[in-house]
Structures are given as structure tokens and as C-alpha cells.
TrEMBL record, chain A:
It holds the Pfam family Alpha-E. This is DUF403 domain-containing protein. It comes from Ruminococcus flavefaciens 007c. Residues 10-166 form the DUF403 domain.
Automatic annotation (TrEMBL), chain B:
It comes from Ruminococcus flavefaciens 007c. SUPFAM superfamilies: Glutathione synthetase ATP-binding domain-like. It comes from the Bacteria. This is Circularly permuted ATP-grasp type 2 domain-containing protein. Signal peptide: none annotated. Residues 49-420 form the Circularly permuted ATP-grasp type domain. InterPro entries: ATP-dep_Glu-Cys_Ligase-2, CP_ATPgrasp_2, UCP005522. PANTHER family: BLR5612 PROTEIN, SLL1039 PROTEIN. It holds the Pfam family CP_ATPgrasp_2.
Amino acid sequence: MTTISKEHSDRLYWLGRYTERAFTTLRTIQKLYDKMLDKSKGYADYLKCFGLYDSYGSNEAFINSFLYDGSNANSVAYSLERAYDNGIVLREEISTHSLSFLQLAKDSLAKSELSKNTRLSLLPLEDQLYAFWGCLNEYIYNDEIRNIIYIGKTIERLDLYIRMAYPFDTTQKEYIRLMKNLERAPKGTPYRYNTANYSELVKIMENEDGYKQNSEKVIGCLEHLFEPLEVTV
Amino acid sequence: MTQQNIEQFTKAVGNANEINELLRRYGVKFGIYKNGVFNEQFFPFDPIPRVIASEDFKSIEKGLVQRVNALNEFLFDIYHEKNIVRDGIIPENFIYISKGYLAQCEGITPPNRIYSHISGIDLVQAKDGEWYILEDNLRIPSGASYPLIARELTRIAAPEAFSENEIVDNRNYAQLLKETMEYTNCGGIRAILTPGRYNAAYFEHSYLAEHTGSVLVQNDELFVEDNILYHRTYSGGKTRIGVLYRRIADEYLDPLNFLPESLIGIPNLMEVYRSGNVGIINAPGNGVADDKGIYYFVPKMIKYYLGEDPILKNAPTYLPFYEEDMKYVMDNLEKLVIKDVAEAGGYGVVFGRELTKEKLEEFRRTIIAEPRRFIAQEVIDFLDLPILDNGETVMRKADLRAFVLSGETTRVWASGLTRFSRNPDSFVVNSSQGGGFKDTWVLK
């Protein structure tokens, strides 16, 4: 008895995007944390990747803001809250169990803020996000629903990897995942790719040179992939 | 086993914090608006259950089935022949000035003639053990999901409480609801209509949708075409809805039939319903039967429609509308509880003993001016239940909302929502007023 409305399909897509954003940001900040042990302002390159101004001044201020500050749209706290906001209206699709891992992740982040050892305290959060994805696979029987979430997830990951100039082979793996997810979207649904942007994306990602020279274009293609501008195939 | 085994239960169910942590994890929340701001709160759970002995429950069950069957008969009668009015059992005045009476429902016979599919009947137990009905809720009674998930989690947190005691498993509510919905299904999928994320009972809407395998919908996902109700899909298609468990009030259901300014309704839904193309749970227009004024007449309804004596008693109630009752109310105002029939959720309830002399006189004048607006009841000295408060057991007022599901047969869910007041001086148990809840164990 499944019928997916436009509203819910948007929510599923953004659930995937925000959960992935929280996860990749979390992992990146953990790497940065390690770097900061040896370097002041060890976050400077990260800010540059996203075109962000350095208003933090210290490693500690950066960490606090990018982990815990719910008003910072690039923080883990912000992304988790948005993921939960989307998840809470999808309970019957994703299950109470899956949703509970987002609640646990939020609680772990809140506890982490009070902890003396930031990195250790973040480990449960990472586990809970892995568990969330596992739980989705366990509880969602409708492939169409699962696929929309995964399209959101892979687009977000690809977008972040490209902005952070990840190596081609890593990015390409995510690109291949995205292609597979897009192929699974039934014809006539909004997640069937847009011809022009899809073709452009395929062309650029054919080889490493194309990727290196046109990474901004890739981000643009991803952003507009589902805009109903042209005939869908 | 009786409620007196407090220590045993307290020990068995363990630490309240563990269960409340689990409830938090699973998002057991309710929303309230205060000063125009929406706040979502976790619903405080007390681990000491209310315990109802098997024999006691059998008697309650029988009484509730009888009451709900009579109320369903009443609703059919009121929207068709109105024999109960014609025969002088209920004054006409009480029907037509009730806000719950909807002329738009005249002549409509819902699928299988059932109006109240899910009835939430509020009871209290007096100190002598007698149960009294406080209120019938036949529109959109909420609360079943809380004890349902609490039981699931309590069984995890305190397994020995269930292996050592013979307790009826209450985790069949979703199945009962699904069967009730299917019995009303006019052909199509099952859907639960919610006003949205910021409704006080949104957790319940989404939890019941998940566990009944229904689609949770909002009005903008629905439309009527050729007198059929459809769900609009994201690919531009449509799926027929056969039964709609709506969790929005009658007046907002269909802007073309009720409040035109409703932004959460579905235009023409009533036409589809009138044509028998969709079942609506509960039927629109039920408010006429759970009006606080009509409550007074329910024992008479039971006699009238079923030819039986009521098994469960009403709390002693007076209608200032009747001269004799008005005199009693005026003479005893300070010891009665007065309820505004138009209010719900614990609002509009005034205890005479809590009013100053001046306020009492002012209230007296209001009752004289608007006698139909109020009912007066004796304050029942109801049984206090033990709750854990910071590790100590204290006694608090509590009621029980029993859920009665009407489908092929009328069935009482062997559980219910026990709500308690956290304030030692208060009789008001509603969650919106800060109350908490307990599990309700029916013993085998």
C-alpha cells in the first residue's frame, strides 16, 4: 500500500542529502581536528573550499561552530536537525527504528559538546549514522522510496567531494553510484534525470582531465539535474 | 493481583529514567502551543502501571460495548428519523443547538451504519472501586499510540515484569485499527489524514500510519475527481483512497461544506462520502453525541435503543437547563465541578470550591444567563494512583481513556491511556496541562 506524494518525495530526497551532509562534515571535521593538533588555523583550506570567510580565529572556535552551532548552516548540528525535520514526517516510510538513530545522533552530538574529549565523544555519533543507513535498508521494502533517499545521499556526497577537491578515483566511485541510482528511478518521476545536465555530467566525468578542469560545472549539473527544463528520458 | 502491590510493580518496572530515555529515543512527543509558539515535548511516562483485574475489566468491557453501541444507534437516529426526540427522551433543544450537530450530515448512512469507529471513553474509578464514565470522545479521540509504544519499550526495559505477571498483551491495537479501517473501506488504500507536523498529536498520526500500513497524508496531496477521493502521486498519477482516518475536526474537513476558510480540508470530500465512495473514520457529525450536555442522556439512550440497564454509571450530573437541576446547582455550586460544554482538553472546567465568593457569584449569574452552556457534576473522590516522583512513590489523581473499536463487532482494547496529574492538588490530567501517562495492565 505505497503511494508517494510530491511532498514526501522531496522530504525523502532531502533526508538523504542532510544526513549525508552531517556525516561527511563530521568525518571531515575529525580529520581537521587531527590536523589542528599540529597546526593553528588548520581549518583554513576547508573554509576556502566552500568560499567561506574566516570569522573564527582559532581552531577551537571553528570546531565549536562547525560541530555544535545550530545557526551555522554548515554545521553538523544544523544538518542533523534538518535531517530529523525531514525524517519525522516520513515515519511510516522509513520506520520509527530508523528515525530513532537520528534522535540518538542528535543526543550524542549534544553530549559531545559537554565532553572533554571531542573526538572520542563523536565516535558514537558516527556509529549511529552508519546504523541509520543500515536500518533504512532493513526497514524500507519499497525500492522507489529507498532509491530517492540514496539519490539525495549520493548527490550530496559527490557535491561535497568535488568542492573539497577529492581525488578523481574516489569521486568517480560516487559518481558511478549516482548513475546507478538514477537509472533505477522510474520513468515519469521527478528523479528521472534531466537530459542536458545529465549528458554534460557524463561527458565531464569520463576522465580525470575533464573532472579537474570542469569541477564547477559538475556542481552546476548536480544542482540542476532534476529541473524540469527539457524532455526527460 | 491488585493496585496495592505498588512496591512489587515499582521494583519490577525498574528505573523510570530508562523507559523515558527509550521513549525519547523513539520520539514519543506531543506538541503544544503556548503564547502562539509551538513547542514539542516528551510525554512524561510513569513506569508504575495501572492494574485492572480480569473480572473488573470484563465488566468495564461489557459496559463500554453497550455504551458505544447505543451511541452509534443514537447517531443513526439523529441523522435520520430522530425518534429519540419525538419520543421525548431528549429535548430537541439539546440536539440542534449543539455545535456538534451538522445539518450537512442529515440522511447520510456511513458504511455498515457505523459512526463512531474509534471511541475514547474517559473513566475514573472511585475509592469504593466503582467505575464512572466522565466523558465520551467520539470525534477524534487520541492517545492510544502512547501506551502502545510504552508497552513495547517497557517489555525491553523490564522483561521480568511481564514474565512474572499474567498481563494481556496490548500490542494488537494497530491490528484492531487496521481491521476497523478495512471494514469501512469503500475500495482503495487506507489513509490517515493529518493537519501536519505541528499538530499536537502528530507523533500518534505518524506512528499509527506506520503500524497500520496506511499512507499518512495532508490535504494538499488529496483531490476529488468524478466523486472519488484520490491521493496525488509524485509522478503525476493518482491512487484511490477507500477509507480516510481523518485526524482533523469536522468543521475543517471540507471547505465547500463546512468552514470555507479551512486550509486543511478537501473540497467536495463530503460529496464523495455521501455517495458511499469513501469511508470516513470517525463519521462527521459525531460531535452531537459526545457533547457534554448529551452525556447526561446516555444512560437513557441505552435503555431506549437497547432496552438494557446501563452497566457503567455516569458521574452524577445536573443540567441547569432543567429547573430542578438548576435549583440544586445554585444551592450546591461550591461543591460541584462545572464544565463548559463547548470546551475540551481540560479547559472550561471549574471547581466551585476553588472560586472566591465574588467569583462564585459571578459564575452563578453566568449559569443563570446561559443554562444550556454548562453541566454540573458531583466531584467524585476518585482513586489516587501511585507514581514515581524523583524516586519516591506519591499518590496522584488519574483517569483512564478506554478505546472501543467498532467494526464487524464492537471491541474494547485491553489497555488504555491512563493519564495522571503531576500536581498533587489537581484533578486535571490532560497532557496539554502538564499531565503524564502510565501503561494500563489488564490481567489475564
